[in-house]
Amino acid sequence: MPNNKIKTIIVFIIFLVSIVLLLTQFKNKSDKNHIHISCSRTIRPVVEKVANLYTQKYKQTIYIEDFEIDINAVNILSDKYDLAFTTKTNENPLLDHTTIGYDSLVIIVNSKNPLNELNKQTLNNIYTKKVKSWQEVTSWNEPILISSEKTGSNSARLFEQYSGLTNPGREKGINGHISQDTHIANSALESIGFVSRIPGAIGFTSLEAALYSKKQGLAIKILTLNGAYPNKENIIDNKYPIKSELNLIYKKDNVKIKDFVELALSPQGQKIIQEQDFIPVITYK
Q1: Phi, psi at residue 6, to the nearest 5°?
Q2: Tens-place pLDDT, residues 67-77
């Protein structure tokens, strides 16, 4: 009798293991048909809307996961992610990309500031504290308070490329360092909040984040830079000096993302891009 009990237990364990293995195989097979997307938190809303449109049309599940700063190409090459939504460029020869929209870096001040326009030299003088009061730029007698973003963010990278200035503590840029007396924000929303609360503050952020914040009633103003305002026409025509792309990055031989990329470039997809305050690459009538 004991032997029979042992045999029964063994058979039952084998049965359970078989069920687990079958379920795992089914899940793995199912997951191969799903699309896994990585994106930054700032552009997650646009990713979710395009993903919902795709799910409605193709009845296919999409998983979305945030990344903080860098795109890990290894995660795409190893098929952990099928797509990365990012405002950074693709520099890996084993990966491909499709541009589905544009964004730009904009300079913002508090809405009480009478200033409407800056040039690059004045901007650099402000961020290096060669200019310390708005009275040196306009007739407004108000001290200047500077906001930057943490090193590694897309906004910080674009500002560094344009101005030649790097955050304090980093290797010196071609035009030096941003002043030590600078608020370093951990996010776009923090930088925008800093500028909206302090009359004499200045900062930089993405056009998408600035437009969204203005809609929410935050007291900020977007400045003309080097004679060009960051509107759709000036950004597309490269008249505005700081443009970034909204890219889909993927492995070259990944065929299952073809429909998703085409949908993002379709009239419905490009409408979502525009509604989320990015600039579409294709204008449909």
Answers
A1: -65, -45
A2: 755 566 778 88
Residue with tokens 């099928």: 82
Coil, strand or helix: which one is 251?
A: strand
CB 200 within 8 A of CB 143: yes
Burial class, 249, CB count within 10 angstroms (exposed 0-12 / middle 13-18 / buried 19+): buried
Rounded distance, CA 73 to CA 234, Å? 32
Domain range annotation of the chain: 2-102+245-280, 103-236
Strand spans (E) along 197-280? 201-206, 220-222, 224-225, 243-251, 279-280
Rounded distance between C-alpha atoms, residue 93 and residue 176, angstroms: 32
Task: List, for residues 133-192, the tens digit of each pLDDT value.
Answer: 999 999 899 999 999 999 888 899 999 999 999 999 899 999 999 999 999 999 889 999
- Whole-angstrom Cα distance, residue 168 to residue 150? 10
Q: Which amino acid is at 171?
A: E
Query: For the chain, what is the total number of helices (H) and then of strands (E)?
Result: 10, 12
What whole-number distance in Å separates Cα of residue 108 and Cα of residue 85?
25
- Give me the amino acid identity at 261: V
CATH class of 2-102+245-280: alpha beta
Residue 209, beta-bridge partner list: none
Q: What local confidence, expressed as pLDDT, does residue 12 receive?
A: 67
Residue 114: Cβ within 10 Å count: 12
Which CATH superfamily, name and number, covers 103-236?
Answer: Periplasmic binding protein-like II (3.40.190.10)
